[in-house]
TrEMBL record:
Organism per entry: Nesterenkonia alkaliphila
Biological processes per GO annotation: canonical glycolysis; fructose 1,6-bisphosphate metabolic process; fructose 6-phosphate metabolic process
Domain Phosphofructokinase: residue ranges: 2-297
NCBIfam families: PFK_mixed (TIGR02483), PRK03202.1 (NF002872)
Protein name as catalogued: ATP-dependent 6-phosphofructokinase
Gene3D superfamilies: 3.40.50.450, Phosphofructokinase domain
Length: 343
């Protein structure tokens, strides 16, 4: 088979490990040929590609980002896109199948194209861990490790100055990064999009910790909406695709804590640091296994399906399961963490 690989949407540690394992497995096990499609769906639509050999993927599993580049190009809205246009390009360049590596938006596009008759399978990726139908996505563990390390550093400077430290992490709609990194760092309050919390309650947690001579650490996801507010803060305008560019909730919480408690408070926004750098060992292994499974799915002609982690096994699931809403933090998981807040 001649297979096209693309990475679409936000970048993520582990993408290169998927590319590597797919190419190596295909070449060694099936005698496949591979094309790397540059810039996500755009590369497929515009036939912007590069040949991928064993030599091209040597040693890339440890590297962050993606050697193919990425974009948020929509496979149906881009000029020349849609099933007919993409099918023509695939036929013209001898592409027998496409493996699309991406998050909810990418996989929704892959599902739609597969339903329209194109030979496409998927690989789930997102640092937010918000995709259904898989227990974990690669990139999440790396983001947690980076955020936890940053919070450990914030706590040392906070304790030196007897300050409250606020750490804003990624999480537009779900709070998995905030929950896991906050618990790992021993945060005294964790604020996530799924749970509205009154500012007075946040300040009470801070006061409880500060009164014991400790320096409070508050972790807040960028999409957190305080009790009484209607929507997440988006002080930085809009993304190119029209979505609000979230940011500013950490500064808001910082100002409220300092004003209401009198405790000196500082804010740090981790931002894209969470996306960058080399993937953890866990993410490299998970991404490698996903890539190998996706290649097998292509040879099974399991179009419209993706690789998924269930327990410790990599299995096949229908893409419709993955894009059926977001995987939110369950209320019981937040209540579990909440036991450790304040006091």
């Amino acid at each position: 088979m001649r297979i096209g690989l693309l990475t679409s949407g936000g970048d993520c540690p582990g993408l290169n490990a998927v590319i590597r394992s797919t190419v190596l497995h295909g070449v060694k096990s099936y005698g496949d040929e591979f094309l790397g499609l540059r810039g996500g769906w755009r590369g497929l639509i515009e036939a912007d590609y590069t040949e991928l050999t064993r030599h091209d993927v040597r040693g890339i599993a440890r590297e962050g980002g993606t050697i193919l580049g990425t974009s948020r190009t929509h496979p149906y809205n881009h000029p020349g896109g849609g099933p007919e246009g993409i099918a023509r390009q695939m036929k013209r360049h001898g592409i027998d199948a496409v493996i699309a590596i991406g998050g909810e938006g990418t996989l929704a596009g892959a599902k739609r194209l597969a339903d329209d008759g194109l030979p496409i399978v998927g690989v789930p990726k997102t640092i937010d861990n918000d995709l259904k139908a898989t227990d974990y996505t690669f990139g999440f563990d790396t983001a947690i490790s980076i955020a936890t390390d940053a919070m450990d550093r914030l706590r040392t400077t906070g304790e030196s100055h007897h300050r409250c430290m606020v750490a804003e992490v990624m999480g537009r709609h779900v709070g998995w990064i905030a929950l896991h990194s906050g618990m790992a760092a021993g945060a005294h309050a964790i604020l996530i999009p799924e749970q509205k919390v009154d500012v007075d309650q946040i300040c009470e947690w801070v006061d409880q910790v500060h009164s014991r001579g400790r320096s409070p650490l508050v972790v807040v996801a960028e999409g957190f909406i305080p009790e009484g507010a209607e929507e997440a803060l988006a002080a930085k305008g809009q993304e190119a695709d029209g979505r609000p560019r979230l940011g500013g909730i950490g500064e808001f919480i910082t100002a409220q804590i300092e004003e209401r408690t009198g405790v000196e408070t500082r804010n740090t926004t981790l931002g894209h640091i969470q996306r960058g750098g080399n993937p953890t060992g866990y993410d490299r292994v998970l991404a490698t296994r996903f890539g190998m499974k996706a290649l097998d799915l292509a040879h099974e002609a399991a179009w419209g399906h993706m690789a998924s982690l269930r327990g410790t096994e990599i299995v096949k699931v229908d893409l419709s399961e993955a894009i059926d809403g977001l995987k939110e933090v369950p209320a019981e998981r937040y209540e579990e963490a909440k036991i450790l807040f304040g006091r």
